[in-house]
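Let's sit down with a protein and look at its sequence and fold side by side. We need material for that, and I hope you will provide a protein of your own picking. Once you have written the record down, we can walk along the chain together.

***
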Amino acid sequence: MLLCPEERILFTGDSINHHCWMQLDGCLSIEEYVKVVEKFVFLEEKADYILHGHAKCFDDISLISAMLEGLKEICAGKREDDTHYEYFGGEAHAMYHPFKTQAGKVFGQEDHGICYQPDNIFAHK
């Protein structure tokens, strides 16, 4: 990530966005990614906007905590609204977990979700 403090913009690449892909081989578990995101949620105090790798425009900085809450919901078993996720023309063993953003904030799109493998929620010990 890169913070531009003068403009209060956080460039996040693909680490924070509307459709977080955690279903690919080599991804951290959801549980491990929660710990990663918790380490940089403090940046919400340092920036007003996010510009991520797939952005059509600026997103409100609260996208960080909204996505973090979605990740925590997956770990807590709140997955009743999750659906099978298809990508690259075929369905994989992946699920899509929608997450909500704060009302009244500006986002480049209306749908937000985390794609994950059901067998990769918790860290393998």
